[in-house]
Amino acid sequence: MYMRILVTGIAGYIGSHTALELLNAGHEVVGFDNLCNSSEESVRRVRALAGRPLRFERLDLLDAAGLALLVKEGFDAVVHFAGLKAVGESVEKPDLYRRNNVDGSANLLAAMRAAGCRRLVFSSSCTVYGEVKKNPVDESHPRSAVNPYGRTKLDVEDLCFDLAKREKGWDIALLRYFNPVGAHDSGRIGEDPKGLPNNLMPFVMQTAVGRREKVRVWGNDYPTPDGTGVRDYIHVVDLALGHLAALEKLPSFGGARAINLGTGRGYSVLEVVKAASKAVGRAIPYEIQPRRPGDSAAIWGDVALARETLGWSAARDMDRMCADHWRWQKNNPTGYAS
What we know:
The chain has helices at residues 13-24, 40-50, 64-71, 87-92, 94-115, 148-166, 200-208, 236-249, 269-280, 304-310, 318-331, and strands at 4-8, 28-33, 55-58, 77-80, 119-125, 171-177, 179-181, 215-218, 230-231, 233-235, 255-261, 267-268, 286-289, 298-299. The strands form four sheets. A seven-stranded parallel β-sheet has the order 3-2-1-4-5-6-11, with helices on both faces. Helix 1 packs parallel to helix 2. The protein is an alpha/beta fold. It is globular, with a radius of gyration of 19 Å. It contains eleven helices and 14 strands. It has a domain at 4-182 and 232-264 and 301-315: 3-Layer(aba) Sandwich (Rossmann fold). The model has no long low-confidence stretch (mean pLDDT 96).
């Protein structure tokens, strides 16, 4: 089924990979981004990889008038990635995160409502679960964000739940991601964090390419098999394909539904470093540091609902995640600036 799709935050890591899969599937894609922590080069490369037209607009979620004008052009669905995403920064600047992520999303929903577009896939996060009571964590787990970033995801989910309950006709997928890693197998698009990476895999790969001295491992005294934190990592292409599956199933939603996207298994920090070292072909140096406040010991997802509802499951394992991420980093040692 052909669709005309608007992608917010299209120049970002997950946005660019999803745009490519949408184009490859034959859909028309229009995207926008304010480029505050991304590069338009990613959009140019997506266009080249797909060999198909891709319209890009420089636009901010807080530009309500510009947003309304664009959405009014007519779209079958919106895939919403745009937002600030650094946990540490959100603690320092909670008002900025609320304004950008929550108020910006409210602008988007208002524009969709005015234009009669009622289908949305939202980029949520497993951070909405807060301190996990049990693993694997499923969608019925109580939500309790432990930082301002997670709170913004929770608040946007609530905007969507409330809207779908209040007005009939909305079909909304709230996709709760675990930890996206990897890159497109062309090595042309990948993760390009500005400044010091907040996440493990880009830090590991920047160390492997010589941009960082060593990987910092925060704590080795957790109640896990090797004492380091355990997380559910998912290949970004599997994640992108999860969005395609959600778009195809949206007409049957009849409201807003939350769905985990992960692999359903956890890897420790040291397991990731070991797998990355194998991909790189040499040992990646690391050092143990004290635990960071707020980090939990382990979290991985129950992904049964994604299988049942979307007919989707992750196909790429940790070796593939590391090999693809390394190909991107090796080919682009300083990211898109290379």
